[in-house]
Structures are given as structure tokens and as C-alpha cells.
Amino acid sequence: MRILLVDDNNTNLKLLTRLVKKIEGCDPLPFATPDEVLSALPELDFDVAIIDYQMPVYTGVELYAEIARFDKYAGVPVVFITADHDMTTRMAALNAGAIDFITKPVNPVEFHARIHNIVSLTEARRQLADQADWLHREVERAMHELREREREIVERLTLAAGYKNPETVRHVQRVAAYAEAIAREMGLPDAFCTDLRLAAPMHDIGTAAMPDTILLKQGKLTEAEYRQMQSHALIGGELLAKGQSSLLQLASEIAVSHHERFDGQGYPNRLAGDTIPLSGRIVAIADSFDALTTERPYKPAWPFDRAAEHIASRAGSQFDPACVEAFQRALGVMREIMDTDRREQAEEIAQKAMSQKLGKIA
Description:
Layout (H helix, E strand, L loop, with lengths): L1 E5 L3 H12 L5 E5 L2 H7 L7 E5 L7 H8 L10 E5 L4 H10 L3 E4 L4 H54 L4 H20 L4 H10 L12 H4 L7 H8 L1 H10 L4 H12 L20 H16 L10 H10 L7 H9 L1 H31 L1
Parallel strand pairs: 1-2, 1-3, 3-4, 4-5
Helix pairs in contact: 6-7, 6-12, 6-14, 6-15, 7-11, 10-11, 11-12, 12-13
């Protein structure tokens, strides 16, 4: 434990130094003038400060005020030594942040008892802070492990949902990446953006309950089939709502709300405006954009710019205007996401073709 000692009286400074050395585990750092202390800041390291109240140029209170300007010394206990018995002086010392004061002439027994108690308190505080840091790290580690398990669950469920149609997996992954890009452009917290990307792939989990005649139909759905297909939002929301995980709860929120419209004409609950969860409003844009820019059995893929213009034209009707503005700012990132996905698809196709060719040769 390092004890800062400041006293302009050489005899007193030597006495204080000798007394501190007698306290187990303590090392004195003696200074004869406030200027010497100020010159050594902020590299100077100490755990407790013992400062003479009355010194030339700087009083003890003025010196401590300068020391306290550095965050490094916040919370360091300070004891003033004074020959003045006036209550005004003592109150000034306490108001400056002192936790104790010692009257001159210094009584060695009293000094040892008071400083020993302060040192013990300081050590206990340090241990408590170390324990708090350890606990914080352990909580963070446990939360990280929990989130990793949640992420794995979501990924497994996403793969299961796309078992009948592998393109579904790529679709939900692109939607998740687009949604995160939009959320970040909105300036939303990093934790929310990350969770949104993890939860968004579950937005169409309810389609697993749809019959193959609808899910794999080559061509446009009939009106009856379309109404049945719409039920996937409620089914997905209800399925995920039963989970206790915060990530699954967010996924449930997205699943049930990503087909709502800002003007209240969407489904399944005809929510409007801000009554639609923000996560659903964001994923609605990401989902629609991906649907427009990819080939479907009933339509060709739209060019990137045409799809972007279409989304922008629906601001205030189908989509939240604030989300659309963020979408437009995120277009550069979204183009990179799309290009990367298409490059990966091309590489997969090439690898499969090569494997088939080698298999025939073998």
C-alpha cells in the first residue's frame, strides 16, 4: 500500500515517513512541497494521501483539489494534518473530500490506529472492486455462452424450416443481413442490431406448417391459397412465443408482424404505424426487398435499383418512412451483401458441378 506524504516541514515529514514504515504493508512516498507532487502527476501512484493542511503557495485543500482533477485518483482516501483546532478549518478539510484529519503534534499511537484503519478499509474496497470485476466478467461470459446456444438453436430451426427448399435458407440469411444494415443506419443500439440479425431468419418459420402444394407451387397462388399462406405469420409468432429466450421472443415479434403495413392494411392483425414493433417494420422492408430482387416461380428478379425505388415509393403506405430513409442510406452495404451472396451461390454451383464430374470419372 503506497502512502503519499506531503509536508513542507522537514522534521514532520521525516516523522510521518517513519510512522508509515511501521504500518505493515505500507510504503511512504514523501514530498516536501506541493509543487513536487504536481510535477509528478499523473504518473504518481498512491493508495492513500496524507497532506499537511497549512503549506506555502498551496494549502493542503488546494493541492488536493488539483490532484482530484485526475480521474485516476478518484476515490483515493485523503487525510489532512493540521495544528489548527478551529472548526472552520476542519469543516473545510472534510468538505474538500477528506475522510479524516490528524491534529499536530502527531501522536504516534493515534496516527498508527487511524492510518491502519484507513489502509484496511482501502484494501477491503480494492478487494471488493476486484470481486465486482470478476463477477462482471463471469456474467458476461455466461451471457455470451447463453447467446451462443440461442444462436445455434435459431440456426438449427432456420435450417429445418428450409429443408424442403434450400433457397429459403439463403433468403432468410439475406433478409437478416439487410435488416441489420437498416437497423444500424437508424442508429439503434449495437446489441439490438446484433439480436435482430440473429432473430430475423425465423421470420418465416410458420411456413413449415404450410402444405407442400402451396409451399412448393410453381406459379401464382390462388386467392384461397394466399389466404392460407398468410396464416404462417400467426403460426410462426405463436410457435416462437412459447420460448423463454429473449432472442426467441424477438423472433416471435418479427414473425407475427413483418407482414403488417404502416397504413394498417397488412396482416395478420392490421396494425398500423408505431403499433407495429420496430423489428417487424425493419424486417418488412428487408423481406420485401429480397423478394423483389430474387427470382420466384411467378416472376423474374428485379434489378437492384428498381427494387430500391419501389421500396422508397411505398414509404408511408406499406413501410415506415423512417425505416425507408435508413434503408436508402444502407443501400451500399446491401449491394455488397447481395453481391457476396450471389458469388457464394456461383461458387457452390461450380463445386457441385466439379464433384459430379469427378464422380463420373471415378
